[in-house]
Design goal:
717 residues, alpha+beta, PH-domain like, 8-stranded antiparallel β-sheet, 4-stranded mixed β-sheet, 25 helices, 14 strands, PH-like_dom_sf
Length: 717
């Protein structure tokens, strides 16, 4: 039986942003709902602009039941062209990847998005000419290579009204003063200096306009090899030890050149190893961490677990979830990166040693490790403005190639790698392990990951500061001329109103002026640590593997009953590192001091909010962490409302004009998909098609039975 809404008769037009142009459209398109295997859905119009693909139905024009967490730029049924991952056509029930010119047009269209949404459209009832236009238009504008200036970023910047917007106290690191202030904040200005050598980009187009180097490094040294082989300052620890990074020389060189470069490096190392500088430790990340290709391969496998077409696929993969998850290797990569950050933190904190991170370009894994170390060691980087300033310093100005790594222009898949997403995944591990230490929430991190694909902000759409500056000049459209005025992603008011922005701020953030040791002790989840792996080498275990934070009640039950069969990593850390790790975890947490992530076995979890938010089958009805957060926000609103009343009464104002804030978040109606899906939606389990599903219904039998897919055997704790 097919449940459908009748085609809408009234004209529905898309809401276009400044500079947005309608390119093609098709009427009487049927969009399937993904809750279950039925053919329920709604009719509407499918349009493609130079910014997005959008589905418009009669609900698109209504403001009723609008979600509180509404994005003002990208709606629920909008897909920016940069967010499109792959497009499949269905021909006679067979799926085929759509690229380039099409000879035959499909009867169904499936769009997989980089934010893990999946859209299913039926084109059977659409006119043939419209099908040709919309399918070829969507494939062409979202999948074929394009020029940088063809990005919507430039169309929007030229047509939008001049509005610099608020920067929310984010330091942009575009001026010399910003770098000097950062040196002063970290007390690194005694041994390091901000240099202007690259003004006009005369040293290198890959380096930022201004950067910081050891005071003893001369301008001639910086100019000699276009900035290669020069230690660039990232951050200074409270004890004077510093974190540095350096772009390595190409490995394939002729003998004479390579000897000259080696002599140059030896001179640099000797110079910065003498007093007043600490001992220097070199760390070549290309040999100690996975390659970018390994990271891309792991993530490609990992995301396939969450691009769910229908309920049947979800329940089919649910049985072998753990083995599928472990085979992707994504969580193992996260663990290795966190472990490397702990190693660097130990050198800086305990050994008082300078650490020099070395990478070919120093703009990929160097950015990940240096950012993580600062989040772990500097409480300022755990505030919202501090974290945003950190991203600006290490990634945007630091020269991470967002354009290539995100493949925004569809020019080369070889360059693509989710390096920035890897950082956000690692930071999420810390946020969920130590929530009071962070001023921002996991929702903030999720929204930040979504903003990678919204081309109205310049933040994530250039490879370097030089590329941004050279493309900033030029004539705008219409009568305007002069440089483009790009928006920064840190102005959250562009995407969200103040009520929605409340979800980005952690109401339980432990602010620095209120150190309360007794409160911190009670907030520490000691039982969680007792369930983790042994933190000594007395009971090593050769097995490797990971659990995720399960949302299905059955698997959660299994997890509870098999809690003793945890799995350790195969590579034990060195003794000094293990002692440092054990010693820190044996003490109460100082939320404004050093934070070390728990990296043993099941402590590394799947970022459930980002990866499961579009899958109704994975929701917890009326529960999940969001139910707690919603109650806290309600309480805060009530307290603020009472505070306003008290203040006004105190100043003899008319108290009758003050109304308490309505509490719209009814957690009983919320699910763990909130705030990205407002109300819980029922998902239908498949009828019992197989004996496997019948087995799954019998929890007790399944718990008693050995796991068929993942070997969880090992020493019981």
């Amino acid at each position: 039986e097919i449940h459908i809404k009748e085609p809408i008769e009234k004209e529905v037009n898309p809401r276009l942003l400044p500079g947005e142009l309608l390119l093609c459209e098709a009427s009487t398109v049927y969009k399937y709902l993904q809750e279950d295997g039925s053919n329920r859905g709604t009719y509407g119009k499918l349009v493609c602009t130079n910014f997005k693909i959008s589905f418009l139905d009669d609900d698109s024009t209504s403001d009723d039941n609008e979600p509180q967490f509404k994005n003002k730029i990208v709606g629920e049924n909008d897909i920016t062209l940069q967010c499109v991952d792959q497009i499949y056509g269905v021909y006679d029930e067979k799926k085929k990847l759509l690229t380039g010119q099409l000879r035959k047009y499909p009867e169904k269209l499936i769009i997989y998005c980089k934010d893990l949404r999946v859209f299913n459209f039926c084109l059977r009832y659409t006119k043939e000419e419209e099908v040709k236009r919309i399918v070829s238009g969507i494939v062409h504008h979202s999948q074929t290579p394009k020029l940088l200036k063809r990005l919507f970023l430039f169309s929007y910047a030229s047509a939008a009204p001049n509005n610099t917007g608020g920067r929310n106290q984010t330091v942009m690191f575009e001026t010399l003063e910003d770098w000097r202030d950062e040196l002063q904040r970290t007390k690194g200005n005694v041994k390091y200096k901000a240099v202007t050598t690259n003004e006009g980009y005369r040293v290198s187009e890959k380096l930022p306009l201004y950067f910081v180097v050891p005071i003893c490094i001369s301008e001639e040294s910086i100019l000699k090899y276009e900035g290669r082989g020069i230690p660039i300052w990232c951050w200074s620890c409270h004890n004077g030890a510093a974190l540095l990074k350096m772009s390595a020389f190409p490995k394939e060189q002729d003998d004479s050149t390579s000897q000259m470069q080696k002599a140059f490096l030896d001179g640099i190392y000797k110079t910065i190893s003498k007093p007043p500088y600490e001992i220097l430790k070199l760390d070549d990340l290309s040999s100690s961490l996975p390659s970018l290709q390994d990271i891309q391969t792991a993530y490609t496998r990992f995301k396939q677990l969450f691009l769910i077409d229908n309920s049947t696929d979800f329940w089919a993969t649910d049985v072998k979830w753990f083995s599928l998850l472990e085979s992707t290797n994504w969580l193992e990569i996260i663990r290795r990166v966190l472990k490397k950050a702990i190693e660097v933190a130990e050198c800086l904190e305990i050994q008082h040693t300078n650490v020099l991170l070395i990478e070919e370009s120093a703009t990929d894994l160097c950015c990940v490790i240096s950012s993580l170390v600062q989040v772990m060691m500097d409480s300022y980087s755990r505030t919202k403005s501090g974290f945003q300033s950190l991203i600006q310093k290490e990634w945007v100005i630091g020269g991470h190639g967002f354009l290539d790594r995100c493949n925004h222009l569809h020019k080369s898949e070889k360059e693509e790698a989710p390096v920035f997403l890897l950082l956000l995944n690692c930071v999420w591990q810390l946020v969920q392990q130590y929530p009071p230490a962070f001023e921002f929430t996991e929702t903030y991190l999720t929204v930040l990951s979504d903003s990678l694909y919204v081309p109205i902000f310049s933040t994530f759409f250039f490879n370097s500061q030089h590329q941004r500056d050279t493309n900033k000049s030029g004539e705008s459209l219409k009568t305007q001329s002069g440089p483009f005025r790009f928006l920064t992603v840190w102005d959250w008011a562009v995407q969200f109103d103040s009520k929605a922005q409340a979800f980005l701020n952690n109401p339980l953030y432990a602010e620095k002026p209120k150190p309360d040791k007794s409160q911190r002790k009670t907030a520490r989840f000691k039982h969680q640590r007792q369930l983790s792996l042994p933190l000594t080498q007395a009971k090593p275990c050769t097995k490797r593997g990971f659990f995720r934070e399960e949302t299905d009640h059955l698997i959660k039950n299994i997890l509870g009953k098999r809690i003793g069969k945890f799995i350790n990593s195969s590579d034990e850390p060195p003794n000094s590192l293990r002692e440092f790790y054990d010693s820190w975890h044996s003490k109460p947490v100082d939320y404004h001091g050093l934070l070390l992530p728990r990296i043993d076995g099941p402590e590394i979890k799947v970022w459930a909010q980002r990866y499961l938010r579009w899958i109704p089958e994975a929701q917890l009805h009326g529960g999940g962490t969001i139910a707690t957060a919603a109650k806290i926000l309600d309480l805060m609103e009530e307290v603020q409302s009472l505070q306003v009343k008290m203040d006004e009464e105190h100043s003899q104002a008319v108290s009758g004009d003050v109304h308490s804030v309505p509490m719209l978040r009814n957690s009983a109606r919320l699910s763990s998909l909130f705030p990205f899906a407002l109300l819980q939606r029922q998902s239908v389990k498949p009828a019992l098609p197989t004996s496997t599903w019948k087995d799954l219904e019998d929890e007790d039998d399944l718990v008693k039975r050995d796991d068929e897919f993942v070997d969880l055997s090992g020493d019981m704790l």
